Amino acid sequence: MTAAVLRSFKRQSANDGFRFVTRFPQLAAATELRSLDSLEKLCPMNRDLYFGVSEQAKASRHRMDDARVLLKAARWRGAMYMAGYAVECLLKTKLMRMYNCRHLHELEEELQRRGVLPAHGTVFTHQLEALLKLTQGLDRLRRDGNLWRTFNTVNRWIPAWRYTANPANREDAENFINAVERILHWIDNNI
Question: Domains of the chain by range and CATH?
Fold first, then answer.
Protein backbone atom coordinates (compact mmCIF):
# COMPACT_ATOMS: atom_id res chain seq x y z
CA MET A 1 0.00 0.00 0.00
CA THR A 2 2.83 2.43 0.74
CA ALA A 3 4.15 2.25 -2.84
CA ALA A 4 0.68 2.88 -4.30
CA VAL A 5 0.11 5.87 -2.03
CA LEU A 6 3.50 7.32 -2.90
CA ARG A 7 2.93 6.79 -6.65
CA SER A 8 -0.35 8.69 -6.56
CA PHE A 9 1.24 11.26 -4.31
CA LYS A 10 3.87 12.11 -6.94
CA ARG A 11 1.14 13.63 -9.09
CA GLN A 12 0.13 16.13 -6.44
CA SER A 13 1.39 19.62 -5.70
CA ALA A 14 3.90 20.49 -3.00
CA ASN A 15 1.11 21.79 -0.77
CA ASP A 16 -0.76 18.55 -1.14
CA GLY A 17 2.46 16.76 -0.23
CA PHE A 18 2.72 18.66 3.01
CA ARG A 19 -0.89 17.77 3.79
CA PHE A 20 0.02 14.13 3.09
CA VAL A 21 2.84 14.28 5.65
CA THR A 22 0.58 15.80 8.28
CA ARG A 23 -2.41 13.60 7.48
CA PHE A 24 -0.54 10.31 7.45
CA PRO A 25 2.15 10.77 10.10
CA GLN A 26 2.71 7.02 10.62
CA LEU A 27 3.27 6.44 6.92
CA ALA A 28 5.43 9.54 6.73
CA ALA A 29 7.49 8.32 9.69
CA ALA A 30 7.82 4.84 8.21
CA THR A 31 9.22 6.36 5.03
CA GLU A 32 11.28 8.98 6.89
CA LEU A 33 9.16 11.86 5.62
CA ARG A 34 9.69 14.51 8.26
CA SER A 35 9.32 17.58 6.12
CA LEU A 36 8.54 18.69 2.60
CA ASP A 37 12.28 18.61 1.82
CA SER A 38 12.64 14.98 2.87
CA LEU A 39 9.49 14.20 0.93
CA GLU A 40 10.94 15.74 -2.22
CA LYS A 41 14.09 13.64 -1.84
CA LEU A 42 11.98 10.49 -1.84
CA CYS A 43 9.36 11.66 -4.36
CA PRO A 44 10.78 14.43 -6.51
CA MET A 45 8.10 16.95 -7.37
CA ASN A 46 8.15 20.03 -9.49
CA ARG A 47 7.57 22.86 -7.06
CA ASP A 48 6.75 25.12 -9.99
CA LEU A 49 4.08 22.81 -11.38
CA TYR A 50 1.29 25.34 -10.80
CA PHE A 51 3.39 28.48 -10.77
CA GLY A 52 4.45 28.66 -14.42
CA VAL A 53 3.33 31.33 -16.82
CA SER A 54 1.24 28.99 -18.97
CA GLU A 55 -0.38 27.39 -15.92
CA GLN A 56 -1.30 30.79 -14.49
CA ALA A 57 -2.75 31.91 -17.84
CA LYS A 58 -4.85 28.76 -18.12
CA ALA A 59 -5.90 29.02 -14.48
CA SER A 60 -7.16 32.55 -15.07
CA ARG A 61 -9.41 31.41 -17.91
CA HIS A 62 -10.57 28.31 -16.06
CA ARG A 63 -11.39 30.21 -12.86
CA MET A 64 -13.50 32.67 -14.86
CA ASP A 65 -15.28 29.77 -16.56
CA ASP A 66 -15.85 28.25 -13.11
CA ALA A 67 -17.24 31.57 -11.88
CA ARG A 68 -19.74 31.74 -14.74
CA VAL A 69 -20.92 28.17 -14.11
CA LEU A 70 -21.33 28.88 -10.39
CA LEU A 71 -23.22 32.09 -11.17
CA LYS A 72 -25.66 30.18 -13.39
CA ALA A 73 -26.09 27.61 -10.60
CA ALA A 74 -27.00 30.40 -8.13
CA ARG A 75 -23.82 29.74 -6.12
CA TRP A 76 -23.22 33.45 -5.67
CA ARG A 77 -20.31 33.52 -3.22
CA GLY A 78 -18.54 30.67 -4.99
CA ALA A 79 -18.81 32.55 -8.29
CA MET A 80 -17.33 35.66 -6.73
CA TYR A 81 -14.56 33.67 -5.05
CA MET A 82 -13.50 32.00 -8.31
CA ALA A 83 -13.68 35.24 -10.30
CA GLY A 84 -11.19 36.87 -7.95
CA TYR A 85 -8.69 34.15 -8.67
CA ALA A 86 -9.10 34.83 -12.39
CA VAL A 87 -7.80 38.36 -11.83
CA GLU A 88 -4.97 37.22 -9.57
CA CYS A 89 -3.77 34.60 -12.05
CA LEU A 90 -3.93 37.00 -15.01
CA LEU A 91 -1.91 39.64 -13.16
CA LYS A 92 0.73 37.04 -12.29
CA THR A 93 0.78 35.87 -15.90
CA LYS A 94 1.33 39.41 -17.13
CA LEU A 95 4.11 39.98 -14.61
CA MET A 96 5.95 36.82 -15.64
CA ARG A 97 5.70 37.85 -19.29
CA MET A 98 6.82 41.42 -18.57
CA TYR A 99 9.96 40.21 -16.79
CA ASN A 100 10.52 37.19 -19.05
CA CYS A 101 10.19 34.71 -16.16
CA ARG A 102 8.92 31.17 -16.48
CA HIS A 103 7.83 30.67 -12.87
CA LEU A 104 6.63 32.75 -9.94
CA HIS A 105 9.75 31.89 -7.91
CA GLU A 106 11.89 33.25 -10.73
CA LEU A 107 9.66 36.35 -10.98
CA GLU A 108 9.99 37.05 -7.28
CA GLU A 109 13.78 36.80 -7.44
CA GLU A 110 13.90 39.06 -10.51
CA LEU A 111 11.67 41.71 -8.95
CA GLN A 112 13.75 41.67 -5.77
CA ARG A 113 16.98 41.85 -7.78
CA ARG A 114 15.66 44.93 -9.62
CA GLY A 115 14.46 46.55 -6.40
CA VAL A 116 10.85 46.54 -7.60
CA LEU A 117 9.90 44.18 -4.78
CA PRO A 118 11.38 44.57 -1.29
CA ALA A 119 13.60 41.74 -0.05
CA HIS A 120 10.81 40.62 2.32
CA GLY A 121 8.11 41.10 -0.36
CA THR A 122 6.49 38.30 -2.31
CA VAL A 123 4.53 37.67 -5.47
CA PHE A 124 2.80 34.80 -3.66
CA THR A 125 0.05 37.14 -2.57
CA HIS A 126 -3.67 37.46 -3.14
CA GLN A 127 -3.57 41.27 -2.92
CA LEU A 128 -4.81 42.38 -6.31
CA GLU A 129 -3.82 46.02 -5.90
CA ALA A 130 -0.26 45.06 -4.95
CA LEU A 131 0.00 42.82 -8.02
CA LEU A 132 -1.45 45.53 -10.26
CA LYS A 133 1.09 48.00 -8.86
CA LEU A 134 3.92 45.61 -9.76
CA THR A 135 2.67 45.62 -13.37
CA GLN A 136 2.97 49.42 -13.36
CA GLY A 137 -0.66 49.60 -14.43
CA LEU A 138 -2.12 51.00 -11.22
CA ASP A 139 -1.64 54.68 -12.08
CA ARG A 140 -2.99 54.18 -15.62
CA LEU A 141 -6.08 52.47 -14.24
CA ARG A 142 -6.62 55.27 -11.68
CA ARG A 143 -6.82 57.86 -14.45
CA ASP A 144 -10.13 56.41 -15.60
CA GLY A 145 -12.58 57.17 -12.78
CA ASN A 146 -15.20 54.63 -13.87
CA LEU A 147 -12.67 51.87 -14.35
CA TRP A 148 -11.02 52.72 -11.02
CA ARG A 149 -14.37 52.31 -9.25
CA THR A 150 -14.80 49.00 -11.07
CA PHE A 151 -11.37 47.88 -9.88
CA ASN A 152 -12.23 48.86 -6.32
CA THR A 153 -15.24 46.55 -6.53
CA VAL A 154 -12.98 43.72 -7.68
CA ASN A 155 -10.33 44.60 -5.12
CA ARG A 156 -12.79 43.78 -2.32
CA TRP A 157 -12.15 40.12 -3.19
CA ILE A 158 -10.43 38.05 -0.53
CA PRO A 159 -9.62 34.33 -0.56
CA ALA A 160 -11.27 34.06 2.87
CA TRP A 161 -14.63 34.15 1.06
CA ARG A 162 -14.22 30.38 0.81
CA TYR A 163 -14.83 30.19 4.55
CA THR A 164 -17.91 32.38 4.80
CA ALA A 165 -21.33 30.86 5.21
CA ASN A 166 -22.83 34.04 3.73
CA PRO A 167 -24.00 32.99 0.27
CA ALA A 168 -24.13 36.62 -1.00
CA ASN A 169 -26.96 37.44 -3.43
CA ARG A 170 -27.59 37.43 -7.15
CA GLU A 171 -27.20 41.18 -7.64
CA ASP A 172 -23.89 41.38 -5.77
CA ALA A 173 -22.56 38.34 -7.61
CA GLU A 174 -23.60 39.61 -11.04
CA ASN A 175 -22.13 43.05 -10.32
CA PHE A 176 -18.90 41.49 -9.10
CA ILE A 177 -18.58 39.13 -12.10
CA ASN A 178 -19.27 42.01 -14.51
CA ALA A 179 -16.63 44.11 -12.76
CA VAL A 180 -14.12 41.25 -12.96
CA GLU A 181 -14.80 40.80 -16.68
CA ARG A 182 -14.17 44.52 -17.30
CA ILE A 183 -10.94 44.43 -15.31
CA LEU A 184 -9.74 41.24 -17.01
CA HIS A 185 -10.38 42.89 -20.39
CA TRP A 186 -8.46 45.99 -19.31
CA ILE A 187 -5.52 43.96 -17.99
CA ASP A 188 -5.42 41.88 -21.17
CA ASN A 189 -5.32 44.97 -23.37
CA ASN A 190 -3.26 47.38 -21.26
CA ILE A 191 -0.57 45.41 -19.47
Answer: 2-42 (no CATH), 53-190 (1.20.120.330)
pTM of this structure: 0.75
DSSP of the chain, one letter per residue? -HHHHHHHHTTS-HHHHHHHHHH-HHHHHHTT--SHHHHHHHS---TTTTTBHHHHHHHHHHHHHHHHHHHHTT-HHHHHHHHHHHHHHHHHHHHHHHTT-SBHHHHHHHHHHHTSS-TT--S----HHHHHHHTT-HHHHHTSHHHHHHHHHHTT--GGGGG------HHHHHHHHHHHHHHHHHHHHH-
Nearest CA to 98 among 182, 143, 106, 128?
A: 106
User: CA 75 to CA 69: how far, in whole Å?
Assistant: 9
At a CB cut-off of 8 Å and minimum separation 6, what does 68 contact?
79, 177
Phi, psi torsion values for 31, nearest 5 degrees = -105, 15
pLDDT digits (tens, 9 = 90+) for 21-54: 445 555 555 555 444 444 444 444 444 556 889 9
pLDDT digits (tens, 9 = 90+) for 86-129: 999 999 999 999 999 999 999 999 999 999 999 899 999 999 99
